[in-house]
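Lab notebook page, bench 4
Experiment: in silico fold of construct C2
Operator: M.H.
Input chain length: 134 residues
Purpose: comparison with the prior construct
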Amino acid sequence: MSPVLSVDGLIIEDRKIILLKRAIYPFKDFWVLPGGKVKYGETVEQAIVREIKEELGIKIRIKRLLGVYSNPSRDPRYHSVSIAYVLKRISGKIKLNFEASQFKYFSLNKLPKKIGFDHRKIINDFKKLTNYEN
């Protein structure tokens, strides 16, 4: 069986990152980046645009590729490889779907304790890449 391909998005606004509080397994009640699985026949770029639209109801554009995350234990359900992107909101008001109970903007220096998957590592990699400081 091959790994599942997924995407994750980092949306930074006013020096804060949008995280979603998951309403479903795995990592229910943990904060996570928006994202999800790539569908068959879809590019990873199309997948991140679709996932953000589905989960947040907003339109985004991709600013840059952040990295590829492939630790076999990053998702307790299966081996998942995620491609993480830095995104910019273009338009729309945030409206959550069933996967999240709430969203919140967090300072990159004051992240919540309970972050799911390997999303803390992804956020920390973003901070290193951008030389993010207080």
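Observations: The beta strands are 4-13, 16-22, 31-32, 35-37, 59-69, 80-91, 100-107. The mean pLDDT is 96.
Next step: discuss at group meeting.
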